[in-house]
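Chapter summary example.
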Amino acid sequence: MSAATCDQGLTPLQQLLIPAMFLSMTGHRVELAEVTPIGAAEFAAGMARRNRIFRERVVQTMLLAALVVRPLPEATGKQLREFADALGVDDDMIEVAQRYAEGAVDLAAVDFTRNGYLGNTDTLRLDALHTEGLDNSWSAVTDDAGLAGRWAQLWELPVGTLGRGVADFYRDRGFVTPGLPGSAPPLLAQHDWVHVLAGYGTTLENEIEVFAFMARANDDPRAFSLLAMVISLFETGYLRAGAGLFEADAGHLSTAGMATRLGDAMRRGALTEGSHDFLDLDWFFLADRPITVVRTEIGLVPKDGIAIAAGSAGPWQPGGITPYQLNSSKNAAAAEGREYLPWQPDPTRD
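The structure predicted for these 350 residues follows.
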């Protein structure tokens, strides 16, 4: 609270988000009215016995609580830096927050592009994407027959496998698979597997959940930039575009129940066994495995009941698809001359 607060105190969204995160991540309820402000030096002294990764996660919690505010006061940007320095932690997103606070939104967008995690196009990542010649991490690939064929083979897998689930996921929304004209960037398509694996639909609220899940499932602290990106797109609108396809559409974290849903997604990611960089994973290696088996192997825990009650929906549950996507599916079937199969709720696949 002391790091992320603004001159007028915490915003209504911060007052929802901070307790929700702490309840999901620690199991303890926090009453904000009972919390005493603390300075950076005193807080750092209290964290002295904690290791670096713990302190990094604490700073990221402060950052997340601040990044939901627009306009972000310059004083808050300075507070974040002060707390991070006292804790001996440096996170690229602190500079982004300070750019936001200064009103330098375009420079902040450049900082996202430069970020070591988002800018990584090394050989291993290219191997996982099964394509070549990416100009940057988020480049689209629209004329790769080999890549398109690999995605088309998912239709041949049995129902219940992860790969077939992803194929159905694309068909039901009229999405174009990588390698074909009009498709999303291969790197962004990686996260579509997470939608199916973790049981999140495809509304913008669901996108926030998916990226929160991915950011905490990865032990590399730089993955936090993924969550910072979608918050900047789908809550504050600080970023006009991101991930090669997404465009800003603000206010979605502020909708009812979303603070709880975000906290639960972070919890589920943190509780997976091991570290998972889902954007750098060769999903086709797992495509023929039953979804239930893959979930068990990574130790994926179910959603908390409070998140479900708050509206967290899976790809085949009511609330897990948009009217636009339903219409796109119908139009895609007509364009391809095939029978249109309407989307149907199917809890067994979620």
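To summarize the output: The chain has a mean pLDDT of 94.
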